[in-house]
Specification:
The relative contact order is 0.06. The chain has 1014 residues and is α+β, with helices and mostly antiparallel strands. It is 22% helix and 35% strand. Strands 15, 17, 19, 20, 21, 22, 23, 24, 25, 26, 27, 32, 37 and 38 form a 14-stranded mixed beta sheet that branches. Helix 5 packs antiparallel against helix 6, helix 11 packs across helix 12 and helix 14 runs antiparallel to helix 15.
Length: 1014
């Protein structure tokens, strides 16, 4: 306590001194430049190592310290920053250890207390290399006058990390940078007019007028221009350009001392009209050019003077070839500034069943470059692309890109998919701030580790265009190639959709950049491969299915046997998470223990699988204790409850009793749900103040708004009850909900307690799958199985179908949502939440019993394998053995609390081990039979129902029949009718309130005959 008090006093004193100093600075007018450079001993005196850090010392790296305790942070010298104008902080530092982020805290004149409300985290790389981080503080609390800044390293337990700060700059005066340039047309033909967009960035606190000078080759006419760039913001100068003649054009721009150039083809009008008649799959040399045909797709390569191109992607249509996009290669080298080459092949030929295209050129430094592209048809709409680059210059960027819609449907779309990051419909734009706040919303060129299935796809109507790739391809570097996606293409200001794959990838902390440190090619060469895919399809999910068809699912290798896994889960319930006399917390820290019946159910099923007699005895004792606590806490009907469970199942009272009470309680819950159902068959969004607060909750969605995840969650519960009990009122309500759900195609809106309603959401896919599957089992109607199949496929974009070699838990890991929680922070990109995936996996296993159109069981096993690899297997502070983390940061390769009880994990393992937590259901001429036992036969003749069941577990089992019986026989023996089934070894009763019969039988293969009331 004394240490905490002392730290608090020091922080308060430092803040007071900072405020006094800031007021002195405030006597000056205008923003004050901050330029802290640590070169001398006296430069250290204004810095305070407040917590968890060794005393600062001066080295060649600047201010140098080491993390010695939990939650390390230092206080920077006093400042007076005009936060409304000074939004950029430049930090030059070297970090070596296990830190993953630099977190900046600040105080203001009007808000002098430190807190999470004024904090901003920026990813860093702790590999010991010196790096400059340019951090834009687009945070709502970065406003007014900032009087103090604190730097923290995250996570708080990054013990032993070396931390050296060389300089910190917060610019005040205008500092305009030339960021990039691009034409507003991807395919330029003679006679076209377009704009050259010159992108500029001002790091300073004062606006600036940037003049852009331009030089153009003889076949182009260009006008210089300028633009006012605001403080700490970006601007675009739009220069008018006219293409006068076909051939190679060149534009060079200069802003101050910075220069960029672009060399690109101007095509003839005849080339754009190229539309040959083509036959079956193959490569064709034609009078006006070449073509590659694969299924319904073709890559058309016309001749344009001395060049070949544009490379047009087309689909067969009723009136010939429908143009749906274009293929592009680009090279950028460091010469006199950044020199970009949009490549137009100079040679073309056929070789080994492929079309070969070649380009040669050089940069202003004399670097000679050669690119060769091979395009080979693979059938079914697939064209294999391999781009080989050789050269000896300084390479900044080499890419293969598809610009879907140009030529063709332009910037319009029906659907677009970038798995792990974007799933868009209609007019929705990628990198939207509606589900992720600025500046985190920009996800144009993310770290490749954030992509779950390596593809990008756009669909307009029935025209699907996609780019697929192998992320582990040996292109010549040690990391995956980087993707870039913009739909529509706001990055280049073009009327198309950008899907690009480029190398070398920029480092993890510099996302959304196409250029990093120049690369010298090893052996003078590199190869970049991808698959171009185009087809007629009604969903972007067809591209995901095609990726799986080509690359396959990762082989699901469990790190332990299923029995060993269940031993580990049992340990959580028997030892590490059990609180005597109270129960189990759902997760730690943050949850109070409760005697959740669902966890006792997991233990009971585990006893059916494990062979250790002592373990079985311990399990049975714990189950009895927990159920006794549960009945005392909630009453006997609660044993059917799924409270505390991610995967609620009603099986427990079918095994241990209290079934009638449980069914009546369940019926009441379902009645309340159906009473709240709208006349349209859906349930509406109701904002909740927890956990985001009332103000944020109102921003997550409009009260009463509809979305598939909300409706599917309630529909699944209603239909599960209808399937188990045969209740026709519940069934009609559930089917009405499914009818309303037909309008949805993107899974959204299941985790609305903290995530925007419109965010793509794996749990919405899982609950929709469950709802449709329950309807199929209840009715036998094929259309509901088709619905279940669709929503199972809709979960694929959330599953990692690849893994880096040093991250085995990545394969099968599940991204929960394409959004951030409470509209704060960078979102869940690259951060799996495996309990979401386990819910999905459980229902995939159920689906696999009815559908063989996809390897659902293999996929579910892959998801389980990832969860098992994330699970806690050794004693660790705050991490109960047998639990698993709420999330896993794949970029940092760190698990993140809280640590969840293994209920969902164990249920998937149990289902795979043959001890299903579900009930089996059979329908016979309007009669529903549900039981944990295997139903071998169910026949109804007149009023006699004949059942053959197999139950080979320990203890009796209950059977529910949705009709009242007059008498019940087991084989040749009449079973006794009893009122208290829980006290009987075997017997049966009729529940008037349920209008149903409950039968209790001992283990074995059982023949039952029931005479039903007429």
């Amino acid at each position: 306590m004394r240490l905490r008090w002392l730290i608090a006093v020091l922080i308060a004193l430092a803040a007071a001194l900072a405020a006094i100093f800031a007021r002195k600075l405030g006597e000056k007018r205008g923003p004050v430049e901050v330029n802290w450079v640590v070169e001398r001993e006296e430069d250290l005196r204004s810095w305070a190592m407040l917590h968890g850090l060794a005393p600062a010392k001066l080295t060649g790296d600047g201010l140098t310290t080491e993390v010695t305790g939990f939650d390390p942070y230092m206080l920077a010298p006093p400042v007076r920053i005009d936060a409304g104008r000074q939004k950029v902080i430049v930090v030059g530092m070297r970090v070596r250890g296990n830190a993953t982020a630099l977190k900046i805290y600040w105080v203001r004149e009007d808000s002098p207390s430190w807190g999470e409300d004024k904090a901003f985290a920026w990813p860093i790389v702790a590999d010991g290399e010196f790096r400059e981080y340019v951090i834009t503080l687009n945070h709502p609390a970065w406003r007014g006058t900032v009087t103090g800044i604190r730097f923290d390293l995250e996570p708080p337990d990054c013990y032993g990390t070396y931390w050296a700060i060389k300089y910190v700059r917060i610019p005040a005066h205008a500092q305009v940078q030339l960021v990039g340039m691009s034409p507003t047309k991807a395919v330029v033909a003679e006679g076209d007019g377009f704009e050259l967009r010159v992108r500029l960035r001002n790091l300073g606190a004062e606006p600036a007028r940037a003049e852009v000078n331009v030089e153009a080759s003889g076949n182009l006419a260009a006008e210089a221009g300028g633009v006012e760039v605001g403080s700490a913001s970006e601007g675009v100068a739009a220069l008018r350009v006219a293409a006068l003649k076909s051939g190679v054009g060149r534009l060079s721009v200069r802003v101050g001392g910075a220069k960029r150039s672009l060399e690109f083809p101007v095509y003839s009008r005849e080339a754009l009209a190229f539309s040959p008649e083509l036959g079956a799959d193959g490569v064709y040399e034609l009078e006006g050019g070449y073509a590659v045909v694969s299924g319904q797709a073709a890559l058309l390569v016309p001749r344009s003077g001395e060049l070949y191109g544009p490379l047009i992607l087309a689909l067969r249509g009723l009136a010939g070839w429908e143009r749906v996009g274009s293929l592009h290669l680009e090279l950028r080298a460091l010469g006199d500034g950044v020199e970009a080459f949009a490549l137009a092949p100079q040679r073309a030929w056929l070789e080994n069943g492929a079309l070969k295209l070649a380009w040669e050129g050089s940069d202003s430094k004399g670097g000679a470059w050669r690119v060769e592209l091979a395009a080979k048809p693979l059938g079914g709409g697939l064209i294999a692309l391999e781009a080989a680059l050789s050269g000896k210059g300084d390479l900044l960027h080499f890419s293969v890109a598809v610009r879907a819609g140009e030529p063709g449907f332009g910037a319009s779309k029906s659907e677009a998919l970038f798995p792990g990051l974007e799933w868009l419909e209609g007019d929705e734009r990628s990198s939207s701030s509606s589900v992720v706040p600025e500046p985190y919303n920009l996800r144009v060129a993310p770290n490749p580790i954030k992509v779950t299935v390596p593809l990008m796809a756009v669909r307009q109507g029935d025209a699907l265009v996609a780019l697929l790739w192998d992320p582990l391809q040996p292109w010549g570097g040690g990391s995956p190639p980087a993707p870039e996606f913009a739909s529509p293409n706001f990055v280049e200001g073009q009327e198309n959709h950008l899907m690009k794959l480029f190398v070398p990838p920029v480092s993890a902390f510099e996302e959304n950049r196409e250029e990093g440190t120049p690369l010298k090619l090893a052996n003078g060469t590199l190869k970049l491969s991808a698959l171009l895919y185009a087809a007629r399809a009604g969903s972007v999910l067809e591209a995901v299915r095609k990726w799986v068809e080509v690359f396959g699912l990762p082989k699901p290798e469990l790190p332990r046997s299923l029995e060993e896994e269940l031993h580990l889960c049992a340990r959580a319930y028997l030892e590490t998470m059990w609180v005597p006399g109270r129960g189990w917390p759902h997760a730690v820290p943050g949850w109070e223990p409760e005697p959740y019946p669902g966890y006792a159910h997991v233990l009971l099923l585990t006893s059916y699988v494990v062979r250790d007699a002592d373990l079985k005895a311990a399990i049975h004792a714990r189950v009895r204790e927990a159920l006794s606590l549960a009945e005392a806490r909630w009453g006997p009907g609660a044993l059917i409850s799924g409270v505390g469970c991610h995967i609620p199942t009603p099986q427990l009272p079918f095994l241990v009793g209290r079934l009638e009470q449980g069914l009546l309680q369940w019926r009441d819950e379902v009645t309340r749900l159906t009473a709240a159902q709208g006349p349209d068959g859906e349930w509406g969004f109701q904002p909740s103040a927890a956990p985001c607060g009332a103000e944020v909750a109102r921003k997550l969605g409009e009260p009463g708004a509809r979305e598939v995840g909300i409706t599917a969650t309630y529909a699944a519960e209603v239909l599960r009850y209808a399937r188990v009990t045969g209740d026709l009122v519940a069934l009609r309500a559930g089917l009405r909900a499914l009818k309303a759900m037909e309008r949805y195609r993107v899974p959204r809106g299941a985790q609305v307690w903290e995530v925007p309603l419109r965010a793509p959401d794996i749990l919405a896919a899982a609950k929709a799958l469950e709802a449709y599957l329950e309807a199929y089992i209840a009715t036998g109607e094929e259309r509901y199985l088709e619905g279940a199949r669709y929503w199972a496929l809709a979960g694929l974009p959330f599953v990692y179908l690849w893994a880096l070699p040093d991250r085995p838990a990545m394969a099968g890991a599940m991204i929960p949502v394409y959004a951030s929680s409470c509209l704060q922070g960078p979102g869940w990109f690259g951060i799996p939440v495996q309990w979401n995936g386990l819910v999905y996996a459980y229902h995939l296993l159920r689906l696999s019993a009815y559908d063989r159109s996809f390897p659902w069981r293999e996929l579910a096993t892959l998801i389980l394998a990832s969860a098992m690899r994330q699970q806690v297997t050794r004693e660790a502070r705050g991490k109960p053995v047998g639990s698993y983390p709420d999330s896993l940061n794949l970029v940092a390769d760190r698990d993140q609390p809280p640590y969840i009880n293994p209920e969902a994990l164990a249920k998937v393992a149990l289902a795979l081990a043959g001890a299903s937590p579900d009930l089996n259901t059979a329908r016979v001429t309007g009669i529903t039979v549900s039981t944990p036992a295997e139903i071998l036969k169910a026949e109804l003749s007149d009023n006699e129902l004949r059942l053959r069941l197999r139950w080979q577990r320990e203890g009796p089992v209950h059977v529910l029949i949705s009709a009242p019986a007059l008498e019940v026989w087991r084989g040749l023996e009449r079973l006794p009718r009893v009122e208290d089934l829980d006290a009987a070894v075997e017997g049966w009763k009729v529940s008037p309130l349920l209008n149903a019969t409950i039968v209790k039988v001992a283990p074995g293969e059982v023949e039952l005959r029931l005479t039903l009331r007429g």
